[in-house]
């Protein structure tokens, strides 16, 4: 019965999407182009170098090298192997869904157990600084100083999620598992053994890294575009406003204005649109806007969660722990926004304006703004060039087989 209900639900959803596309073709096209712009201007060019580098680092044993070195603090803090330190750092630097991709690779390489992978993926999928500082604080709020607050809430909240998730599956943890001690000599030995055990020539390793990364990013682009369209269609058929009305009671209890309910629901589906709508809500105070955006960033949005689910589906890693961690991250980030709003935003602005007038953006923030502008100008060219290289590589491989 459950199987039939699921089939009916999926079929109804697809039929609804098809009918809505026919009914609102112009709006669907605009939403699709918005998602496409986000993907080929920002997502593809910013993630591809990280994805390729990660594949090479895994192939050459560098991840195992850092795993041994990071074991002394990753195991006590998060109850995951030292290799998780590499995933955590890369996830924060490159943004979601890098953490899920790298965790899946480590699981496929049998470097971590199933439970350890579920712990690891729960706190290694974070937004990158470029998106938080450049796109949201500068692009939407036109306030670069806000980026420090949002980034602090996001990353500190993510750290707390990792601490909490260390207790997940504790009964299933095998205490007899050998835990490598800190040893640079042993780390180099493991690196060497891993490198020579991979019989592929460098050209093949590099080609595989490029092709696999491009294929993953193409999948991510599809999710971004389709969720952008779905979000728009749900709004046009009044489903999103209807759900927002349900949240009015919850927002009233939390002391948030009803006008933030619609941006919140939109943000649950797609972060970028939700953050943009939140920034444009005049009826809310800045603190209320920051609380909402912090939750949405921590929750990741169903668009990112669908990307993560697709990546995890290739392994035995369960999605449920990741989803629970996203709710936890959203709550932590929102609470931190309330606590840190005065010291990291109000007080900092008071200090800067209390002495001499400050013009322009802080140096550290302006760098992220310049990087975002660079990606917006040259990102599409880079994306098309990389896709062309990927197509040529696949064509040559097919011709030689």
TrEMBL record:
Membrane-crossing segments per the record: 46-69, 120-141, 147-169, 205-227, 233-253, 291-312, 319-341, 374-395
Pfam family, one: Gate
Keywords on record: Membrane, Transmembrane, Transmembrane helix
Nucleoside transporter/FeoB GTPase Gate domain mapped to chain residues: 43-140, 219-313
Residues forming coiled coils: none
UniProt keyword Metal-binding present: no
Record-linked NCBIfam families: spore_ylbJ (TIGR02871)
UniProt-recorded name of the protein: Sporulation integral membrane protein YlbJ
Organism: Salirhabdus euzebyi
């Amino acid at each position: 019965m459950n199987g039939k209900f699921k089939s009916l639900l999926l079929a109804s959803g697809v039929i609804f999407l098809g009918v809505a596309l026919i009914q609102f073709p112009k709006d669907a096209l605009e939403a699709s182009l918005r998602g496409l712009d986000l993907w080929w201007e920002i997502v593809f060019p910013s993630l591809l170098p990280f994805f390729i580098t990660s594949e090479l680092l895994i192939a050459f044993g560098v991840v195992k090298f850092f795993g041994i070195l990071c074991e002394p603090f990753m195991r006590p803090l998060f109850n995951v192997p030292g290799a998780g330190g590499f995933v955590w750092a890369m996830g924060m630097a490159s943004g979601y869904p890098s953490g899920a991709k790298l965790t899946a690779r480590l699981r496929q390489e049998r470097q971590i157990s199933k439970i350890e992978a579920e712990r690891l993926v729960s706190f290694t999928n974070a937004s990158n600084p470029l998106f938080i500082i450049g796109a949201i604080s500068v692009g939407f709020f036109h306030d670069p100083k806000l980026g420090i607050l949002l980034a602090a809430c996001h990353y500190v909240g993510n750290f707390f999620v990792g601490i909490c998730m260390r207790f997940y599956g504790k009964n299933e943890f095998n205490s007899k598992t050998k835990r490598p001690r800190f040893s640079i000599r042993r780390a180099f030995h493991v690196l060497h053994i891993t490198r020579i055990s991979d019989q592929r020539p460098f050209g093949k390793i590099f080609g595989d890294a490029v092709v696999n990364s491009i294929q993953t990013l193409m999948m991510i682009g599809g999710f971004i575009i389709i969720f952008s369209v779905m979000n728009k269609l749900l709004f046009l058929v009044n489903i999103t406003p209807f759900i927002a009305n349900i949240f009015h009671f919850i927002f009233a209890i939390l002391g948030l204005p009803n006008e933030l309910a619609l941006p919140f629901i939109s943000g649950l589906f797609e972060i970028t649109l939700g953050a943009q709508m939140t920034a444009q809500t005049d009826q809310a105070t800045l603190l209320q806007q920051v609380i909402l955006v912090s939750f949405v960033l921590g929750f990741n949005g169903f668009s990112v969660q669908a990307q993560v689910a697709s990546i995890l589906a290739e392994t035995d890693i369960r999605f449920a722990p990741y989803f629970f961690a996203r709710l936890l991250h959203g709550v932590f980030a929102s609470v931190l926004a309330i606590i840190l709003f005065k010291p990291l935003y109000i007080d900092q602005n008071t200090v800067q304006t209390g002495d001499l007038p400050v013009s322009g953006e802080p140096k550290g923030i302006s760098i992220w703004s310049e990087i975002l502008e660079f990606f917006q100008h040259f990102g599409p060219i880079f994306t098309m060039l990389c896709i062309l290289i990927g197509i040529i590589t696949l064509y040559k491989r097919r011709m030689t087989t």
